[in-house]
From TrEMBL, chains A, B, C:
Organism in which the protein naturally occurs: Thiohalocapsa marina
One Pfam family it belongs to: Gly_transporter
Protein name: Trimeric intracellular cation channel family protein
Main location: membrane
Subcellular location(s) per record: Cell membrane
Biological classification of the source: Bacteria, Pseudomonadati, Pseudomonadota, Gammaproteobacteria, Chromatiales
UniProt xrefs under PANTHER family: INNER MEMBRANE PROTEIN (PTHR30506), UPF0126 INNER MEMBRANE PROTEIN YADS-RELATED (PTHR30506:SF3)
Transmembrane segments: 28-50, 62-80, 87-108, 114-135, 147-167, 173-192
Family indicated by similarity: Belongs to the UPF0126 family.
GO CC list: plasma membrane
Entry membrane topology: Multi-pass membrane protein
Keywords: Cell membrane, Membrane, Transmembrane, Transmembrane helix
Segments forming domain Glycine transporter: 5-78, 90-162
Keyword Membrane belongs to the record: yes
Amino acid sequence: MLTYIYMIAITAEGMSGALAAGRRNMDIFGVGVIAFTTALGGGTIRDILLGNFPVTWTQHPIYIYLTVSAGLLTVVIARFMHHLRKLFLLLDAMGLVAFTIIGCSVALRLEYNLVVVIMAGMITGIFGGILRDVLCQRVPIVFREELYASVSFLVAVLYLALDSLGVHQDINLAASFAFGLTMRIAALYWGLKLPTFSYDPGRWH
Amino acid sequence: MLTYIYMIAITAEGMSGALAAGRRNMDIFGVGVIAFTTALGGGTIRDILLGNFPVTWTQHPIYIYLTVSAGLLTVVIARFMHHLRKLFLLLDAMGLVAFTIIGCSVALRLEYNLVVVIMAGMITGIFGGILRDVLCQRVPIVFREELYASVSFLVAVLYLALDSLGVHQDINLAASFAFGLTMRIAALYWGLKLPTFSYDPGRWH
Amino acid sequence: MLTYIYMIAITAEGMSGALAAGRRNMDIFGVGVIAFTTALGGGTIRDILLGNFPVTWTQHPIYIYLTVSAGLLTVVIARFMHHLRKLFLLLDAMGLVAFTIIGCSVALRLEYNLVVVIMAGMITGIFGGILRDVLCQRVPIVFREELYASVSFLVAVLYLALDSLGVHQDINLAASFAFGLTMRIAALYWGLKLPTFSYDPGRWH
């Protein structure tokens, strides 16, 4: 089940990467690379940080084909995508939750301590988008727009709490998805953001 | 033979990094770091992604000296470099082909599957330039200008095809270089580019 | 002793990251992430490059709490920080020296060759700041302002020279700190910079 959601999620993330590449007028090769990086970059950084070799996608070429194809497909259907905006945001939210839970699971299996497990979930959830924004020359939006990284954090905490309480994995997944999707959709609907820190120095590092 | 071409290649890439640093008015320390990163960053990322430790340059200090020296030398001769533009682009093209083949070889030896082998070649070929552009605050040019990443991709495919057909390594190298250099030079000469994807959203991630 | 200085140092670096995030109007989650990355990113990249798994901070959650807390605290006290500018720069200079020495020690222990040991020190010292600047969309200041990377380099060389001469570790640390702090403070006081390389091409990669 989580695998299917994961594959939907990396497809959605690949499309989000392609759109960002299109805003920078990249060629279709760049679109494929950014799509791949957005979808699989978070998991890659998690695997490297945790010393979890071989990196996941190197053992599952299907993920590579899927994300690059999603990116290239986006080039064709981009003109219609504003009609699909809500669907797209929903898929992206599913991806955020799925990535977070998968990231936590990997770190749990490797027996890292709890705060690292939570961070592994969040890194999987949000670093693909950060890499996308760095490669496309934007300040990472996950730190500026509606609740996103925070949803990943709360999902990780909830998932681990239920897991440690011995809740059955299926129920835990259902609860985490229900909670995460509700949070994210509510954040988008009401424009919920974290407080912002604005600092304007004279000359300062 | 490939080793000599590799050393010429990292020298050329180091110089390209230095020029990019110069466009951002970096100090000579920054020039050295960007030169090193441009020349050896692609191979470093490949080694990390493939779990191929120790990373290559840590075992060959000569590569470090060579790339940093190339960067610093560039500071001295930059004013003459527009006279050397064609030579420089030729060396850069040789580097692209050499990096790609070396990257494929490393992944082949580690018995990764074919698509990862191709990606390892491309990552070695193009990620140094991507790191250079990120550190120098540019949208990566490998995704915007004349065919570059595509040449790396096609060279990887050709090299692996000939290799799997049992073609002798020397002949394979000669053919891959002939093909790759011709492609890249033709792309520069005729301004060949991939189609570009331009996307201008209203407000959109 | 070095451990205490290290903890002061990552606190100072976390605060520097938070200020940079504040210049980009990030939310408090972004502030925490940038604080963490600035403080622990250099050591993380060192560990990955050297194949030194598990990455240090994954085994010491206290470092995670400390850096994120320092970032969030900065949000509260930012308005008073211009009064603390000199203290802050001193802590930052202590961090640079401490990070450099720790980075060298790690690479020495793993028996890398000398130039890699020096680079490990410098990477630990300066790459947190580079990651901060990349995530906050700035050209890395360590390559443009008063001597910083150079101080890291010279501290590494001095520390290794005294170490190879058999100087007692405590005396070596004292000497390295005295030298590094003096250099960095002198650079700030007199505005010492390395020569800059400015290159303005017509159209050039």
